[in-house]
Fold this protein.
Amino acid sequence: MSETVRARAIAEVALMAGVIIVLGLVPPLYVLGLPVPITAQTLGVMLAGAVLGARRGGLAALVVLVLCAASLPVMVGGSGGVGVLLGPTGGYALGFVPGAVVTGLAARRALRLPPRTRGVGLVGACLLGGVLVVYALGIPWTAAVTGLPLRTAALGALVFVPGDLLKAVLAGMAALLVHRQVHVEQMRELVLDDEARPRA
Amino acid sequence: MTANPPAAGPRIELRDVVVRRDGRTVLTVPQLDLTQRRIGLVGANGSGKTTLLRLLNGLLAPTGGTVRVDGLDPVRDGRAVRRRVGFVFADPGEQIVLPVVGEDVAFGLKNRGIPAPERTAMVLDQLARLGAAHLVDRSAHSLSGGERQLVALAGVLVMNPATLVLDEPTGTLDLVNALRFTTLLAGLDLQVVAASHDLDLLTDFDRVLVLADGRLVADDEPATALATYRGLAARAAAGPAPRPPQRGERNGAAAR
Amino acid sequence: MSLLETSSPRPGPLRAVGAGRKLVALLAIGILVAAVPRPVVLAALTGIGLLALVLARPQRRDLVRLGAAWALAAAVTAGVQLVTADRAAALGSVLRLTALALPALAVMASTATEELLDTVLSAARPLRHLGVRPDSVALTAALTIRFVPELADTAARLRDAQRARGARPQLLALAVPLLVHALTTSEQVAQAVVARSFFDRGEPADGPSPDTDPALCARA
């Protein structure tokens, strides 16, 4: 029944958007003695792509941005509003969508790797989408809004990189574990035991 | 909205129904006619109760055989069947899809194209009938377990179905709320098909079916059927533990 | 914690202006700030923003919260500019941030959340031609709002369980069960959405549904 398929799409996107939002509410943690606390929201974005794939993951990120634009407190720490999107860190927020999409595309390929390297592949996918793409959008945006030269904005962003690298590792591992426990149709390319599972 | 059909309810027929999942046969029903007003379903977890229920409103298609509700195929004629059959899920929280009670109860009505003022009236009326009118402006999240059950039920009853299918309706409720719910159910003027572990709920039913390992093993008036079920359960309790759920089974698929 | 518990906008001249117009204006200001950041332009925009803010009559709570965010960003940026460039650059940066922050606050304070949500969602209407139903978009947003508090509760319970085991809260041990829970919940919610006739919209007569395909039927 294509109705159930469509409903599943809606529900998966909505619940994943919820996860992104809730992870943004988890208090930031100081890790590895870094001076900057890491927040979990981009972890959610990476997971959205790695678990649901490019399309639904990207849509989940988009839903979060839409709710943010509607002034709902969905961004890290419970902030929201158009001001967040237009402000200095707006690029990082807007980067959620392409970030999730790229993560999803790369993750789908990663899941086709032999079991031993899948985890690494997923981490790579999260690095690509969750760090590279997001920063590629975030840094120029900051520069454009604040008037800081690009290089300064980039250097400023550098301090967050170690934390985000760690997040990508966590996200990759988490995604692998999730795929082992739950059947996500659109990512399913013989993930579980590499046995063909007959359809009902 | 169509008026309630006569109390006997629609004719639900299953013929040669087989449901297979992941290579296993989870349900086999050679022949079943459901016409009584109160029909219960008991069985252990994984016995096929939920599977059977979900055949009735088209949420699940049988691998083989036919299901007919008033002559309609729940898969092909889903819209028509859903008009007749309302489904209350085991976890009411997952059935309440909108943030505010009033708008959630109106969800089905809105989907049917009922205009706003009429919707509001119907919602308030239905909530009032369940003694839950005071919940209309509450957020879904703030509801207690018993309140959630009422709101979920309201959302289904407001659509005026001819048959109400319930999956473990008192499963999330404490005793007080379970008893309240049982009384509520008894007062409803439509056909009820309920899967339940709650033997109190089923004692006043017209007919109780017992499922084990995907097969109907008993079909009787409540006292007899429940005695059969108890016997089965006792034997099972004395035997080895059941196999653990398979990896990769989602909650909906795995035995509850 | 309900996402919808936001303050209602105060009555005022800006209240009557449509949310769509305000958002477009805000976007235009944003583009101007980035593209033409000359002091004259920035000063003018700041003036407009100040006027808008006065007209919007924001609640003190919002003013404080957003003011703090602005102050932090301004302080950091100004600090960096003072170190790496000069005072003029620092001032320019602060002006840019202010020119953005004031009208943004004015818009948020003078527009109801529901109105903003409706406006943003209606921007999705053109996607209809790509096969994306506006109703589906609205439902997705509503479902998210509905389940965020539930997911937050689940996350809290997972954290408590970790603490009860004597472990420090680990992100991985939180994320995986949370996701699994979200996915299994989404399966049930999807069933409920179908069972409650969401896809039966727009069909006055009872009859066969055109888009059923037994081969794709629900397995779980």
Observations:
- Chain B has ten helices and nine strands.
